Amino acid sequence: MLLCNCDTCGRLFLTKWVARCTSCSQLVLNESNKVKDFVRTHPRATIIEIYHQTGVSLQTIKELMRA
User: Fold this and answer.
1) Mind listing the pLDDT tens digit for each residue in 4-59?
2) 10, part of any domain
3) Which helix or strand (DSSP H or E) is residue 52 part of?
4) Among 10, 20, 28, 35, which is least packed by CB within 10 angstroms?
C-alpha cells in the first residue's frame, strides 16, 4: 500500500492503484452515471449540452469520453 494525495481534492489516503480518495471516487461515479443516463436519452448531444444539462464539469466529461 502507498500513501498518496488524491488527484481531485489533495487529501492523503492509502492506495494500491487508484488516484482518488473514496469520497472523490464516489463523486466521479455519480457524475459518470448522470452523463451516461443523459447521453443514452440524447445520443447526439454536444459536450456543452451535456455540461449544461447535467452540471458535470467539462473536464470530467472529457475524461469519460477518453475512457
Assistant:
1) 999 889 999 998 888 889 999 999 899 999 999 999 999 999 999 999 999 999 99
2) no
3) helix 47-54
4) 10
Q: How would you label 6-31 residue by residue, b for 16+ Cβ within 10 Å and e otherwise?
A: beeeeeebebeeeebbeebeeebeeb
- CA gap 52, 44 in Å, rounded: 14
Q: Does residue 1 lie within any of the structural domains?
A: no
Query: C-alpha grid cell for residue 5?
Result: 494525495
In this structure, the number of other CB atoms found within 10 A of the CB of residue 65 comes to: 11
Would you tell me how many other CB atoms lie within 10 Å of the CB of residue 32?
16
Looking at the structure of the chain, the number of domains it has is: 1
6 inside domain: no
